[in-house]
Amino acid sequence: MFKLAIAVALVAVGLWAFYGVQNLSVYVRALFPVAGVIAGLLIVFYWCDFGRRLIAYVRDSVAEFKKVVWPPRKDAVRMTFFVVVFVAVLSLFIYAVDSLISWLFFDLLLKRG
Questions:
Q1: Which of 40, 101, 102, 111 could form a disulfide with 7 if both were Cys (CB 3.0 to 4.6 A apart)?
Q2: pTM score of the predicted model
Q3: Under a CB-based contact definition with an 8 Å cutoff, are residues 18 and 29 in contact?
Q4: Is the same domain home to 44 and 79?
Q5: pLDDT tens, the chain, 113 aa long
Q6: What is the DSSP string of 34-49?
């Protein structure tokens, strides 16, 4: 937890330096927060257990992603077409039900519209 606090403090110091040093060019001042963020990320990823676990998780995720068997292009295009058609039909159904409910409510019950 202390290491994460140091990382956050480095980012905060970088932001403070950006706004605190007004006599330098804005391009030079922009390097302060960038350096603070980079230093904070280095501390998190290489010094903290959280960063090590995150790196291991990303490596394992990439390994699992490479094991995925993707469907052939023909099947993927066909299933995408079915999904688009189903979404269109469902949206038309929802529009029809909404129109019916608003007609019932506003025209028949409230006599407005």
A1: 40
A2: 0.49
A3: yes
A4: no
A5: 788 888 889 899 999 999 988 888 889 899 999 999 999 888 888 888 888 898 899 999 999 999 999 899 999 999 999 999 999 999 999 999 999 999 888 887 777 65
A6: HHHHHHHHHHHHHHSH
